[in-house]
Design brief:
With about 200 residues, the protein is of the alpha/beta class. It has a domain of about 100 residues: Formyl transferase, N-terminal domain (Rossmann fold, 3-Layer(aba) Sandwich), CATH 3.40.50. Helices cover about 40% and strands about 20% of the residues. The chain is built from 7 helices and 7 strands. It has a 7-stranded mixed β-sheet with strand order 3-2-1-4-5-6-7, with helices on both faces. Helix 1 runs parallel beside helix 7 and helix 6 packs across helix 7.
Length: about 200
């Protein structure tokens, strides 16, 4: 059974879908904690409403001389998390968390990797780049997280067809709508062993 710690900066759409899947016994997992670097994150409110422990951890909240990477690692370990899910987390992870959870940190990217990934390739920037390149398809990619942006081994991807007249906004809406269900599907397969973890 996966014991999931979630990191989210804002709404946490995929986190919400995963928590609902756990509550409805669709996914054999436990939601151990939701952590945000944003004290006003709606993800924290959702987690509290669903009885999932929460923490706000940021350089600002910790104060001078405190290390957010160390605090983040400690909070995840104390919560009993063995797997991390990034759900719109807008901070790069530090070496302690990357080392402690190596091979167990998952992120969903709103484009097909590796072409539409890397530093600066997030949110609307991805969708604008796809349209500018004249692509016929975009998609979503779930991958492991390492020290480089969008670089870790890919676990699964799903293509999304571009439609005539698509704008970055309309493409973003379809990609975002597909992400939560896809994340739940892949976590189910990882949990039951039908999809192996990358080596």
């Amino acid at each position: 059974m996966l014991k999931i710690g979630f990191l989210s900066s804002h709404n946490g759409s995929s986190m919400r879908a995963i928590v609902h899947a756990i509550e409805h016994h669709v996914l054999k997992a436990e939601a151990k904690i939701v952590i945000s670097n944003n004290s006003q994150s709606p993800a924290l409110v959702f987690a509290q409403e669903h009885h999932v422990p929460t923490r706000h951890i940021s350089a600002t909240s910790l104060g001078a001389g405190q290390d957010a990477d160390t605090a983040l690692e400690a909070a995840l370990v104390d919560a009993g998390a063995d797997t991390l899910v990034l759900s719109g987390y807008m901070r790069k992870l530090g070496p302690r968390v990357l080392s402690r959870y190596a091979g167990r940190i998952l992120n969903i990217h709103p484009g097909l990797l590796p072409r539409f990934g890397g530093q600066g390739m997030y949110g609307m920037n991805v969708h604008r780049a796809v349209l500018a390149a004249g692509e016929r398809t975009s998609g979503i990619t779930i991958h492991l997280v390492d020290e480089e942006y969008d670089h870790g081994p890919q676990i699964a991807s799903r293509k999304i067809l571009l439609m005539p007249g698509d704008t970055a906004e309309t493409l973003a809406a379809r990609v975002q709508a597909a992400e939560p269900e896809f994340f739940v599907e892949i976590l189910r397969k990882l949990a039951d062993g039908s999809l192996p973890w990358p080596k």
